[in-house]
Amino acid sequence: MSMGWQDVRDEALRRIRSRAWEPGALIPNEADLAQELGCARATVNRALRALAEEGWLDRRRKAGTRVTLAPQRRAQLAIPLIRQQIEARGQSFGHRILIRTAEPMPPHVLALFDLPAPGPAAMRVQTLYLADDRAFALEDRWVNLDAVPSFAGADLDALCPNEWLVRHAPFAHGTLDYSAVPASAEEAAQLGCAPGAPLMILERRTYGPAAPVTYMRLAHAPGHRLRLEI
Amino acid sequence: MSMGWQDVRDEALRRIRSRAWEPGALIPNEADLAQELGCARATVNRALRALAEEGWLDRRRKAGTRVTLAPQRRAQLAIPLIRQQIEARGQSFGHRILIRTAEPMPPHVLALFDLPAPGPAAMRVQTLYLADDRAFALEDRWVNLDAVPSFAGADLDALCPNEWLVRHAPFAHGTLDYSAVPASAEEAAQLGCAPGAPLMILERRTYGPAAPVTYMRLAHAPGHRLRLEI
DNA sequence: TAGTGGTCTAGACCACGGC
DNA sequence: CCGTGGTCTAGACCACTAG
Questions:
Q1: What 3 state SS string does A132-186 have?
Q2: Strand C closer than 7 A to residue A33 Cβ
Q3: In contact, B148 and B169? CB cutoff 8 Å
Q4: Mean pLDDT to the nearest integer, B150-156
C-alpha cells in the first residue's frame, strides 16, 4: 500500500466526488480507514483534517465524520500591495502624495470605528498611485497617531503609505468593503475619467492588537477588476 | 511546561509580533524549539506549519524557517448562495426566470473558456433575484449541456439556477471577477435604477473536473457591498 | 554532503458529546 | 458510559537544497 497523507486525501476526495461517500453520509472512522488503507491513524487524521479545512467534511468527536451537504467553498483573495498589483502587470509603479495634514478623523470614519468624537490624534494622507505614469487609484487615508505615533514623521515620498504601514504597523485584523459608486468631480479629475463614471471603491478598516490603526478609501480608475480564485 | 501546538503557535506569533523574531530573520530550528519549549518536535512542526499556512513564516528544507518579510495576509470570502446572502439580512428570498432558451454560448463567453466556435450545446437562463420582492440582482448564465446534461430538464422555478447547480454539478475550480460598470438600459429596467448607474458586476467561470460548466454574469442592484474579513 | 523541514509510525491519553 | 476525533510523544527515515 504505502499511502502518504496526500494519497489518503486524494482517495477520500475521489470517494466524495464519485458519491461512493454520499453527501451527508457518515464515513468510516479513522481507525478503520487506517487499516483499510494500510497506514497509521495519524496519517488518516492528517488527510481528513485537510479535507475538513477545505470544507469537504464535517468532523465531530463521537459523532464521526460526514460528507458536507452543501460544500461551502471559500474564495481566497491575496491582498497584495498596490506596488505588487501594478508590477505584476508589467507596469512601473509610482505614487504622489497630494495631501498630508494633521486632521482629525471625520464623523463618518469615527462612526465606522465606533469611536466617540473628537477621536484620536490623526493624520490624513491623500495619495495618487500611478501605473506607467497613468492614474491607477486615488487613496484617502486617516491614520490613528495614538496607535502609530511614528507615522507622523514617515518619509512617504520614499515609501508610499500602503507599504509604510505594512512594514511598521503590524495589524491584527480588519475588513475590506468593495462597492461601485459614481466618480466625484475630484476623483474624475485625478483619475482622468468622466464625473459619474463607475468606480470600484475599496474601503479598508485596519485594527491593531488593541486600537484602530487606519481607515482607507481607495478609488480605482475605471476598468479595474478584482479577481478571486476558487 | 506542557505546551500544546496551539500554545507553541501563540508563543511563536508573540515573538513575531513583538519583533523578538525580526522580519526576514531565521528562527531556531524545530529541534531546538522543541527542547526550549519542552515538547516534541512534531508539536513544534504542527505549530510552525500552521503559521506558515497563514503567511507568517517561510519554511524551506535545509534553509530553515524565516519570518515573512511582507506578511501577505489573505482575505477569505465565503461564497454563499444568493438565498443565504438575502436571508442573512432578514429579507425574504425570491427569484423569477426571465429567459430560458437553448442557445449557444456567445463568442465572448467561448473566448473566456478558450473554446473554439461554435462551442458545446448550451442553455441560457436569465434570472432576477428578489429580496423582499425588490430586485436584488440580475443574472445571465450559460450552462454547458455536455458537462451537465440534466440541466436541460431542471425545474428552475422550484430551485434557482444558482442552487440547482451547486447541488447537481460538483465543480473543481473557477474564478470570480468583480467590476464596476454602468447599468445598461435592460439592467436599469430590471433592477429599477437609472441607466448608467454604477453596478457591481460579478462574473463567474466554473469548471468541472474536465470541462467548463457555466459562465455567469450577475449585476447587483445599486448599493451592493462586498465584504471580506482579514 | 550535511542540515533542515516533511512525514510516517505505534502507542498513548484526553476531551467532547451522543446515548 | 464509551466511541470518536484531537493531540502528544519518541523515534525513525526521507526529500530537498544551500553551501
A1: CCEEEEEEEEEEECCCCHHHHHCCCCCCCHHHHHHHHCCCCEEEEEEEEEECCHH
A2: no
A3: yes
A4: 93
Q: Do A198 and B177 touch (CB under 8 A)?
A: no
Distance CA B112, CA B212 (A): 10
> Kind of pairing, strands A173-182 and A198-207?
antiparallel
Digit-coded pLDDT (tens) for A106-116: 999 999 999 99
Q: What's the CA B85/C1' C13 distance, rounded, in angstroms?
A: 43
Whose cell is 475630484? That residue is A186
pLDDT tens, A170-189? 666 788 999 999 999 999 99
Q: Which residue has the cell 509604510?
A: A164
Give B160's contacts (C-beta < 8 A, 6+ positions apart).
Answer: B82, B83, B95, B127, B129
Supply B108's cell numbers: 465572448
Q: Residue B209 has which C-alpha cell?
A: 473536473
CA B175 to chain A, closest CA, distance in angstroms equals 5
Q: A73, B79 in Cβ contact below 8 A?
A: yes
Compute the distance between CA of residue B151 and CA of residue B174 in angstroms, rounded to an integer: 19
Reference A65, options A34, A21, A35; nearest CA is A21
Q: For residue B35, give every residue at least 6 positions away whose Cβ sits within 8 Å of its Cβ, in sequence order, or none.
A: none
Q: Name the nearest CA neighbour of B65 among B83, B44, B81, B93.
A: B44
% of chain A with per-residue pLDDT over 70: 93
Q: What amino acid occupies position B44?
A: V
- Structure confidence by residue, pLDDT tens digits, A71-90: 666 666 766 678 888 888 88
A174 CB neighbours in chain B (<8 A) are 229-230
- B227 vs A17, A175, A181: nearest CB: A175
Nearest to B225 by CA among B188, B180, B193: B180
| Number of residues that this document lists for chain A | 230
Instruction: Give DSSP secondary structure letters for A2-34.
Output: ---HHHHHHHHHHHHHTTSS-TT-B---HHHHH
Sign of the alpha-carbon dihedral angle for B186, A195, B224, B213: positive
Residue B211 grid cell:
470541462
